[in-house]
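YM 10:42: Glucose-fructose oxidoreductase domain-containing protein 1 sequence, as discussed on the call
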Amino acid sequence: MLPGIGVFGTGSVAKVLVPFLREKGFSVEAIWGVTLQEAESTAKELKIPFFTNKIDDVLLKKNVSLVFIVCAPNLHAQISVKALGIGKHVVCDKPAGLCQAEALKMVRAAQYYPTLISIINHSLRFLPAFIHMRKCIMDGYLGNPSELTLIDVRVQMGSLLGETYNWLCDDTMGGGTLTLVGSHVIDLVSYLSGQKVMKAHGVLRTFVEETEKVNGIRKITAPDFCTFQLQMDKGLLVTATLNNHLPGPCFNQEIYVCSKKGYLVVKGGDLHGRLHKSSSKKEVIYVDVEDLSCASSVIPKPYIKGLCKMISALKEAFLPVKEQMDWIKEPVKAAATFEDGQRVQATMEALRQSNEDGCWKTVQLLTEPPDPNPALSAAVRRTAISLQ
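YM 10:58: structure's back
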């Protein structure tokens, strides 16, 4: 019994997601858009029976049991917390909200409703090349997994901006290469190594402040270049360079994992390895030959393929059970949780602070929501003390 799906968002991810869901046997029951016009045109295009611009209209539909949140990041926390409170399963696109405080709200909601699915769409975890890479690491291909020395990540791709000025152009609204690509990288290195980020150092730059389509009084503030280093808790060093300056919709991604014994590398969707022995040659461990039924010129192929595999895993989680809201954990245990999302958010905050002052920053996880008005709280405390 597969659950009915509600989709929040009308962008390129939604247009790739809905055909995948239908292909796997899910029924897409409702779609939400910022404006009624956007929602209606996307619903017609994707043949979805119900559309709205009111969040509650989707969440309160009885035949919607699982929601996919693929809208602007400023609504991720609000919709996730509300959906879990009503008793719906949630798959939320990266990032987990706009800041750590929002991510913490999502974590608390997920902890409060542990019987519901609550995962972040870090789809590279489901890409076969990275599943094989992690297995090789954990099986000791490079020696003891805690003795990895370096992960080196290079991502070169075209612009992330659209035809008009929107949240993708604004750093504070979740746009830019650190949030949209770097979040995947930060999550992936923790997943592959089994280690947590302790310290971070980063440089963010916005080289392109206007384009042919986006110009005039509004400037683009979302970074299109980012390089960062992460120090992990068992000594592993991560270095990453993310570049959005290639012309056209191209995407090149290389991820090297090194130790004193050798290295593993994923290029595109293929995995190779080599050990530092005189007789050793470069090994082909996994080659990606599977073709996509639904390609996109906007979203890079590895992310789409990972998303497709994640939907397959969700199907396996729901299919063996008879009740629509029941599920089994095994197929989706590799998925990024809301806690992982908060850790990524904490790392990105440390990287932004590092960019401001040029220093290494310790990654600090929030455990309590920040005080919205510290000055007022201090005054109240002082008054209470003086009254005693």
